[in-house]
Amino acid sequence: MTISGGDTSRLRRINLVTTLRALRGQGPLSLTEVTRRTGLSRPTVESLTEELLGSGWLKELPPQPGHMGRPARLFSFHATGDYVLGIDIGSYSIRAAVADLDGTVVASRTERVGADAGRSVRLTAVRATAVKALASAEVGSAQLATVCVGTTGVVSHDGRVKRCVGLPEWDGLDLAGELGADFDCPVLVENDCNLAALTEGWIGEAQGVDDVAFVLSGVRTGAGLLIGGRVHRGRGGAAGEIGALPLLGWHRATSHLTGYPKMPADILPQEAAEYVFAQARTGEPAARWAVEQYAHDLAEGIAALVLALDPELVVIGGGVSRSGDVLLEPLRRHLDPLCLEPPALAVSTLSDQAVVLGAVRLALDHVDARLYDVDTMLPEPSS
Amino acid sequence: MTISGGDTSRLRRINLVTTLRALRGQGPLSLTEVTRRTGLSRPTVESLTEELLGSGWLKELPPQPGHMGRPARLFSFHATGDYVLGIDIGSYSIRAAVADLDGTVVASRTERVGADAGRSVRLTAVRATAVKALASAEVGSAQLATVCVGTTGVVSHDGRVKRCVGLPEWDGLDLAGELGADFDCPVLVENDCNLAALTEGWIGEAQGVDDVAFVLSGVRTGAGLLIGGRVHRGRGGAAGEIGALPLLGWHRATSHLTGYPKMPADILPQEAAEYVFAQARTGEPAARWAVEQYAHDLAEGIAALVLALDPELVVIGGGVSRSGDVLLEPLRRHLDPLCLEPPALAVSTLSDQAVVLGAVRLALDHVDARLYDVDTMLPEPSS
Fold first, then answer.
1. Cα–Cα–Cα angle for B267, B272, B274, nearest 5°?
2. Quick one: pLDDT at residue A11?
3. What is the pLDDT of residues B138-171, one digit of tens each?
4. Residue A354: its H or E element
5. DSSP reduced 3-state for B94
6. A266-304 CB burial, b ≥16 within 10 A, e <16
7. How far apart are the first and last CA of chain A?
8. What is the pLDDT of residue B373?
9. Who's near A192: CB < 8 A, 6+ residues apart?
10. A24 — contact with chain B (CB < 8 Å)?
11. Which of A21, A41, A228 sits opposite B39 (nearest CB)?
12. Which residues of A touch B11 (CB under 8 A)?
């Protein structure tokens, strides 16, 4: 409750960030202009500017000619990379997207991969997809500020896949280490549901919503959480793993769809859910029953998330979200009686782009954090 | 990603707070000293100081005599109240504690109340306990900065008890409205488990831990969450209400203890759990079985919280925490197989003080937030 002596250096950091913010996203500014915009004294701004020049966050431009008297020194913000790369490692496909620092995707690629592909085959596909996306964007690896990779499984803080049942030979993989060697910039790894949740908050159904439970319903059933608008990873990256509790129905949910008794032999596994929903849409009784059972089991895990967290919104995403018109009614019917109050429920419209766009967003957030966080930025930007 | 026009007023707010912080916890300071400590320009500090004087956050002191030249104007921080009052409304007792703004409890009172006491009897007991605690502390009502009240039940953001099965005639009570009329300062109302969680983070088992699931195991079973070190209330104040999911065992957990077949007739209901644990400690088989069943059911709800949130720590509090030596082994045995990794588990040592101290802490946080939050403070302190 009192001001400690350590606040002097903290105050200087705050002033450094204030100065950086005044310069970021602007054309070159003079010291006088920086002083005006920050409200700081001129000696303070001079000292801060020197420090920021020394640490590489600012660059000094040649003084503008044609002015009377001594020309004013001009400074501008110095970015350390102009693009980010997001990657989504799925069971049946790899997606990569290159975006600029404003978040505009300038190129993206999707490559197929076999669901039974092992570790080395899948990693090769990941690298090939990244190379193609970068080539398509005409962006060199040296122009990347951050890479972010999404994967199913529990991901540790240092980017290892600690636990994964969805992909062959993926359990225990040091994914950040494997891909980190391919890039000169930081490589982040994050759980795919967490990334999809982030995308919903960025450009999807959860814009402006602080606390969100995102439920990925597709080949697998999983969840990612936003709390205070940020991904909540938990102690070991395992937040949202409510599906691991056998008392609740997520472990068996998709089996109701894949086990649909009238499934034609030529329907691929990744198309099974959508086929059952299409049949249910026509009123076919066995398909309607399969959807009913699926909704019942999905509701149990969602109810546990709702009762634990009381989120402002639940977003249903993943492949099943394309069939929201069929799913929502039975889901509401099973879910609402399990909750104290009916939760707000939305169906994602981002479909299979949510994870790769979330990887882009997390990479951008990482760039921003390096710029803005008064506790972790400085003394110098990473090369 | 760009600096918007609205940042000018935000920058002024930041500078206002910087100025307030420089003055808070200090003796009177001159403008020159404030300028030096903040790094702001003198015209900026003069303008900010006038605004803070006008809004009541600062007071101006008489200039010190005996100096050469024009005496310097002196300013100091102006607190709006010197104490907070915390109240815990329980089934069997009402607790009240008066603390100063450093969080030191200067007086506290506990008064008994019947578990079957209705709304008006219980409210009368609350008021009487508060009056006695204030008298004991020799603190007048006008000296209170904030009052905070803890109650069982789901509490809305405006301090209504939206849902409560634990106390008679308590469901739907506008508790903030009822008690707000008794005090001139803000009256906050919060769920008791949330407050106990806050206390664990403040002075208990969860100090320095960001993400905590606190489980109240006593007359009732409930939970409160800390995320990022702050109480996570959720959309409607219902976070932690995992006990409402009948698939999990919390709704029946305490019945294993209260239904102990060898319970003597003279054991009061509020003493039942402790009696069974004491018997289990001696090895009495029926008591051991009751504890085993209790641990089994408690573990299911805890596992759901752990899998949903992946907290850094689970703290077991409430009356049962006094029997942690008997409970922990069976609880771990039932809990660990339900979780992906065994969660860190601690038993509270705060016993029945956790809720009232949490009320004190939340009141202090409210005082701090009014002082420090750049988004909500200003233009003026509440009277």
1. 115
2. 78
3. 999 889 999 999 999 999 999 999 999 889 999 9
4. helix A354-372
5. strand
6. eeeeeebbbbbbebbeeeeeebbebbebbbbbbbbbbbb
7. 39
8. 57
9. A88, A89, A90, A150, A151, A152, A216, A222, A224, A355, A358
10. yes
11. A41
12. 18, 37-39
Chain B nearest-CA distance from A327, in A, is 22
- CB-based contact A1 B38, cutoff 8 Å: no
- Which of B245, B360, B366 is the best residue to mutate to test the A interface, defined by the most A CB atoms within 10 Å of its own CB? B245
- Contact (CB, 8 A) for B185 and B144: yes
- CA atoms of A382 and A145, how far apart (whole Å): 9
B-contacting residues of A 281-320, CB under 8 Å? Answer: 300, 303-305, 307-312
List, as ranges, residues 74-113 from A with C-beta within 8 Å of B: 101-103
Instruction: Name residue B189's amino acid.
Output: V
For tokens 């959860």, what's the residue? A206
Q: Look at B11 and A102 and tell me if their CB atoms are within 8 Å.
A: no
Put simply, the answer to whether A309 touches B308 (Cβ < 8 Å) is: yes
**How do residues A98-136 score in pLDDT, each as one tens digit?**
999 888 999 999 999 999 999 999 999 999 999 999 999
| Inter-chain CB proximity B310 and A14 less than 8 Å | no
Tell me the β-bridge partners of B219: none
Please report the beta strands in A58-211, taking only residues with DSSP state E, as ranges in sequence order: 58-61, 74-77, 83-89, 93-100, 105-112, 144-151, 154-155, 161-163, 187-191
Those residues with Cβ within 8 angstroms of residue A285's Cβ, 6 or more apart along the chain or in another chain: none
Which positions 328-357 of A are in contact with B (Cβ < 8 Å)?
338-341, 344
- pLDDT band, very low/low/confident/very high, at A4 (cuts 50, 70, 90): very low
CA distance B136 to A165: 62
Q: What percent of chain A has pLDDT over 90?
A: 71
Phi then psi for residue A272, to 5 deg, are -60, -50
pLDDT tens, A234-269? 999 999 999 999 999 999 999 999 999 999 999 998
Chain B residue with minimum CA distance to A1? B102
Domains and CATH numbers, chain B: 7-77 (1.10.10.10), 83-196+354-372 (3.30.420.40), 207-349 (3.30.420.40)
Is A371 an interface residue toward B (CB < 8 Å)? no
Residues in chain B: 383
Instruction: Take residue A26 and report the two structure tokens written for it.
Output: 């602007």
The rounded distance, in Å, linking the Cα atoms of B363 and B83 is: 9
Longest dimension (CA), chain A: 86
Which tens digit of pLDDT belongs to each residue from B359-372? 999 999 988 777 66
Contact B101 A227 (CB under 8 A): no
